[in-house]
Amino acid sequence: MRLRNEVVLPPVGLTSQQLTPWIFWHIWLARNNVCFNNKYTTPEETATRALAAAREWNLSQTQECFVKKKQSTPVAVAPSGVLIRTDAAWNESLLLAGLGWTITTENRSCKFALYAEFVGSPLVAESLALRAALHKCKDMELRRICCESDSSLLIKALQTNVMSMEIYGIVADINELILAFDSVAFRWISREKNREADMLAKNCLADEQVLYALNVT
To answer: Where are the alpha helices (DSSP H) in the chain?
Structure first.
């Protein structure tokens, strides 16, 4: 039995850089459990799960800390499909991110934005934006989609099935989500073409930073 104030040491071979993303991720999961499922997870349980996930990841990696996941090649979206463009804005000091995306069909274009807490890097923020957009597409019962982002690292991870540790969990979620669609494609676009999603993300982050400042004062 572990005492409440007992210090839990990280597994041998794990650095703080390897462990931090998993801590953020499991804090986020614990927060979601409270908000959406009314289930409380103690800090000790959250830390233990983060350590276990980090250990499992570390043992499965090559020296370059990359993993290849087998999955079917995404099918190119048909002309009658739906275009999704995603982007994110990140505040390093607050670990806050604004997520923005647009969903464009033949008949209309919809805009969406939300914020995320405990975000460890710009790449994590970009990945969260794409995952949120896919959740929305699933809720809207869209079937054929093409996802575009100006994050070359994220698109490369999705196109080549090679992903870095910090986005492994989110990319795994994305790979599971795309099974709900008839066809999915991922494409890189320039920032110039992604202005609308970029503005949605930046405005959302700016609003959240104002609220944060008000709460602090």
So the answer is: 16-37, 43-60, 122-139, 152-160, 168-177, 195-216
